[in-house]
Design brief:
Elements (H helix, E strand, L loop, with lengths): L30 E6 L2 H11 L8 E6 L1 H8 L8 E5 L3 H14 L5 E6 L4 H9 L4 E4 L4 H10 L11 E7 L6 H14 L5 E5 L7 H4 L8 H5 L7 H7 L1 E2 L4 E4 L17 H10 L2 E6 L5 H9 L2 E6 L3 H17 L7 E7 L9 H8 L5 E4 L2 H10 L3 H4 L4 H14 L13 H9 L1
Parallel strand pairs: 1-2, 1-3, 3-4, 4-5, 6-10, 6-11, 7-9, 7-10, 11-12, 12-13
Antiparallel strand pairs: 8-9
Helix pairs in contact: 1-5, 2-3, 6-16
């Protein structure tokens, strides 16, 4: 008998519409089999299978609709999820009754149909259908439907992973990552964790003035022990809302990892932290590429020079191709205005990347140097400094919270405040 999971009563977006900027929890390791009647739906499901959020799912597509599904499962076990396309009302109800006779308990069914009728929907729910989508569907419709089957409404929201990486070495990506995470935790009041992925030379411990005895290396070298309790013991508390998963920053071992070395760590952090900021080192390997593609939002830090422009463009193009259903990466320009150094203007960057930078941070060696040497954030040294406001704006863009700027106080603000008080 087909089990009931949850009903999705959201109105489906029109085909061809731009991706909705919502947060979809990745699917666990499940098997999904789709039985389509049209080439268009099969293409949408195939495209969905290439989405990063279904990376762990095993997807198989066949043509033939409900009749093919019923025939296939007479002699084979059913998967975790079955996707069925149908074009008629009567066929879907009778087909479901036949499928229920050969369907294993616990299998969840998603139906794709062309009839937008409340009575039909209620009848499908009564028969145990988990979700009903109105055709034509997009890849993101399929992704959202499958992933939502395994995200209970009462469950704790899955954390958002933000990856920050430098277009080249020495552009200040780690400094920006740490200050942006500070703004997310302090100004947006989101419980956050910074994961320093540069195990050999990471600077997060120095920047936050922390020297924990344990950190991310203990987790990556003990994957069988990784769970929420174990990760919690490795975290170093920086503020009420900010924790650090520090890198050892020692050279007593070689840090060569497989592509999926950090998967268990990231999955565990997602289940316990609303926001995870990855400080990704400037290197190109299987695991760094996987970390970037698997992140919910990405920001590239670049300097205003030709090498940064080329590398930013290459990273942008790769990530957009690998993440067609996600928001495009962001980038910012750092260390702008170094005396006597020829620079590429932000407008030229925008033309090449085909989008403007989210922020342009000026070259401020005195305050950044003081912060680095004192183990402080820029906001701790100067709360009203212009870069402090820029870090907050970046934090708002990356988290999707309050993207409007704070109103600036005028010289009349004190007087107005007194009048309102009266």
């Amino acid at each position: 008998m087909i089990s009931y999971a949850r009903q999705n009563q959201e109105e489906q977006p029109e085909a061809g519409s731009p991706p909705v900027d919502d947060h979809i929890a990745p699917s666990p390791r499940v098997s999904v089999q789709a039985f389509c009647e049209t080439v268009e739906t099969a293409a949408a499901v195939q495209s969905a299978g290439e989405d990063r959020r279904l990376a762990k799912a095993h997807l198989k597509i066949q043509m033939g609709g409900m009749a093919a599904a019923t025939e296939a499962y007479r002699s084979a076990p059913t998967p975790n999820v079955i996707i069925l396309e149908t074009e008629a009302r009567n066929d879907v109800l009778s087909g479901l009754d036949q499928l229920a006779a050969v369907c294993d308990a616990g299998t969840r069914v998603v139906v794709i149909g062309r009839i937008n009728d409340v009575a039909l929907y209620r009848e499908l729910v009564r028969r145990g259908v988990s979700d009903y989508l109105i055709a034509p569907v997009t890849a993101l419709d399929v992704v959202r439907s499958i992933c939502s089957l395994f995200s209970a409404p009462e469950a704790k929201p899955v954390g958002r992973i933000i990856a920050i990486v430098g277009a080249k070495g020495g552009v200040g990506a780690s400094t920006i990552a740490h200050n942006v995470a500070w703004a997310i935790a302090r100004d947006l009041a989101l419980d956050s964790v910074v994961a320093d992925l540069d195990l050999a030379f990471g600077t997060a411990g120095l920047d936050y003035n922390q020297d924990p005895a344990q950190g991310i290396a203990d987790a990556v070298f003990s994957p069988d022990r990784v769970d929420t309790a174990f990760i919690d013991r490795l975290l170093s508390k920086c503020t009420d809302h900010l924790s650090l998963l520090a890198a050892p920053a020692t050279l007593d071992r070689v840090y060569d990892f497989g592509d999926d070395a950090f998967d268990a760590i990231f999955d565990t952090l997602r289940s316990s932290m609303p926001c995870i900021v990855l400080d990704v080192p400037h290197q190109w390997s299987g695991w760094t590429k996987r970390a970037l593609i698997g992140a919910d939002d990405i920001m590239i830090v670049a300097a205003p020079d030709l090498a940064s422009l080329r590398n930013t463009k290459n990273i942008f193009d790769l990530l957009k191709a690998a993440r067609p259903n996600d928001r495009a990466p962001l980038y910012c320009l750092n260390q702008v205005g170094i005396p006597k150094r020829p620079e590429i203007a932000a407008t030229e960057f925008a033309k090449a990347i085909e989008s403007p930078p989210v922020a342009t941070l000026p070259f401020e060696p005195q305050i950044f140097g003081a912060a680095a040497n004192n183990g402080q954030m820029i906001a701790e040294i100067s709360a009203n400094h212009r870069t402090t406001e820029m870090f907050l704006q970046i934090a708002q863009r990356l988290t999707g919270r309050g993207e409007t700027k704070k109103p600036k106080n005028s010289f009349l603000s004190p007087l107005i405040g007194k009048l309102r008080g009266k």
